[in-house]
Design goal:
With 258 residues, the protein is of the alpha/beta class. Helices cover 28% and strands 24% of the residues. A 9-stranded mixed beta sheet has the order 9-8-7-10-6-1-4-5-11, with helices on both faces. A two-stranded antiparallel ribbon has the order 2-3. The termini are far apart.
Length: 258
């Protein structure tokens, strides 16, 4: 069995963001980039399948500029067998449709039985790339997967999906298939020293030619900006009775509730 896990490099949430000169994104300066936390669950699920079945080959794939090599090697440290990097120019924006197109180009004739994605990326949080890949490849897919079981003949996968309001759905898909993995399905592991040493020396497959885009872009990034600051809050001090009176007065002044 061959599993492709698509991973993404995202900025740490504690980073200090600044708009780039184009006004269409953030500057990379001073940003620490990490492996998308949601993709860690997808990779861990692939590793668990390999531990159950034995003969499973896992490829970690990512798109982006040269700095993306760091998170591909992180996936190798965690246990992926191979790493592949679709190299893009610096500060080159790829929407989910265009990203899906590049992934589809990579998967052609490689015979993957399963394609795993994290349910969303922590930066844009769209959750669109996985389903778009499935649509372009005309493969069955399931999103927000919280458990999976592969049949003994490796022909079917039964998954449980998380729906709205706490509901669950169980579906059976023929392989090959595409899954987006929900956080909490497992507990991602820490890398072993031997895997760290292997990942440091392992050669990555680098793909430099991007798939030509069809006429008309799926999405175009027009502008990026910080939201306006929220109004300053009001702190109410004094004894409890005084605080209650002040609060009632503020509510009367600003609303028609009282």
């Amino acid at each position: 069995m061959k599993i492709l896990v698509c991973v993404k490099q995202v900025p740490e949430r504690e980073s200090r963001f600044r708009l780039d000169p184009s006004g269409k994104g953030y500057s990379d300066q001073g940003i620490n980039f990490v492996l998308n936390p949601y993709d860690e669950y997808a990779l861990e699920e692939a590793l668990l399948i390999r531990e159950r079945l034995g003969q499973v080959e896992i490829t970690a794939l990512s798109l982006g500029p040269a700095r993306v090599e760091k998170i591909i090697r992180r996936a190798l440290e965690l246990g992926a067998d191979h790493g592949a990097h679709i190299l893009t120019p610096e500060s080159y924006y790829l929407g989910p449709g265009e990203t899906a197109l590049q992934i589809v180009k990579f998967t052609r004739e490689r015979g993957f039985d399963l394609l795993f994605f994290g349910i969303i990326s922590e930066d844009y949080m769209r959750g669109q790339t996985g389903p778009m890949v499935a649509a372009l490849l005309q493969l069955p897919f399931a999103t927000a997967v919280v458990s999976e079981t592969i049949s003994d003949d490796l022909g079917l996968i039964t998954v449980e999906r998380e729906l709205e309001a706490g509901a669950r759905e169980v579906v059976e898909l023929p392989l090959p298939a595409v899954l987006t993995i929900q956080s909490g399905i497992n507990r991602p592991r820490y890398p072993r020293l031997t895997d760290k040493l292997r990942a440091r020396a392992q050669k990555l497959e680098v793909i430099t030619g991007l798939e030509p885009l069809p006429p008309g872009r799926c999405a175009e990034l027009l502008r990026a900006f910080f939201p306006p600051p929220s109004p300053a809050g009001t702190f109410i001090t004094g004894a409890l009775e005084e605080q209650a009176e002040k609060l009632i007065r503020i509510i009367r002044e600003k609303t028609d509730v009282l």
